[in-house]
Design goal:
By secondary structure, this protein is of the alpha/beta class. Helix content is 38%, strand content 23%. It has ten helices and ten strands. A six-stranded mixed β-sheet has the order 6-7-8-3-9-10, sandwiched between helices. Strands 2-1-4-5 form a four-stranded antiparallel β-sheet. The longest helix is centred in the last third of the chain and has 16 residues.
């Protein structure tokens, strides 16, 4: 469903994304993790057409994003880490506006908006201006908007930011359900426990390079050089081993 082929992005000669090649299957929930500045958000923005790649290709559902941008954008839902929302609209007005961007209108979409408002516990606020919403409410509204046109692919950058534990649990359940219904989800997150829980496969990006991809067992083997890995049960341990974060232990020793 998603193919990244030698995908590159440079800024003033700096390789923010350095030749990523990756395939994500239909219905897969793929999590991309990495340190700050590793290239996660840059990759996401290229996949959604917000940034033009310096090189390489992005193929979604068989369509080249650069050659058929409108077709590709019509089948993806995008949930950014810092969404822009028209705060002088009410929640319901925003969802109707967003549905209209995809040509969705009429009773069917009105009913879906009502269901989403109820699902994300925004119904009682639906006639209030968004400027009065909390950060978590805005995040739930943006997630709702991304689901309105029943996308085949959902691209998500840090979906849990600003959500309380109940909201996080709800979003995790929704993503699992969508994945089971053959919706492909490509998600970046700093929350390694969320990636470990949700991801069918996980990719680790560091300094613009995709340094590891696989299931948790695959990653454990990579981190242990193919040997036994019973002493490295968590994604956090694997992540620090592969990205050099274990050096933190030496720094902390200096503080003692």
């Amino acid at each position: 469903m998603i193919k990244l082929i030698d995908l590159k992005k440079t800024f003033n000669g700096f390789p923010a994304v350095n030749g990523i090649t990756l395939k994500v299957e239909k219905g897969e929930l793929f999590c991309l993790v990495g340190p700050n500045g590793a290239g996660k958000t840059t990759t996401i923005k290229m996949m959604t057409g917000l940034l033009k790649p310096t090189g390489g290709k992005i193929i979604i559902d068989g369509n080249d994003l650069q050659e058929e941008p409108l077709m590709v954008k019509g089948i993806i839902g995008y949930i950014p880490d810092r969404p822009f929302i028209y705060e002088k609209l009410t929640g319901k007005e925003f969802l109707k506006f967003f549905a209209g961007l995809f040509g969705e209108e009429g009773k069917t979409v009105d009913d879906k908006i009502e269901r989403l408002l109820n699902l994300f516990e925004l119904k009682e606020w639906s006639e209030e201006l968004i400027e009065g919403y909390s950060h978590g409410m805005k995040q739930r509204l943006v997630i709702s908007s991304a689901l309105l046109h029943s996308p085949k692919v959902i691209i998500v950058d840090e979906p849990m930011v600003g959500l309380d534990p109940k909201g996080i649990r709800l979003v995790k359940r929704i993503f699992k359900k969508l994945s089971s219904d053959d919706v492909t989800i490509f998600m970046t997150t700093h929350n390694l426990s969320v990636a470990e829980e949700l991801g069918n496969r996980i990719g680790i990006i560091n300094e613009g390079n995709l340094i590891a991809v696989g299931t948790m067992d695959d990653l454990r083997k990579m981190a242990k050089g193919g040997g036994a890995y019973h002493d490295m049960p968590l994604l956090e341990d694997i992540f620090l081993r592969l990205t050099g974060g274990e050096e933190l232990d030496e720094v902390i020793e200096v503080l003692r």
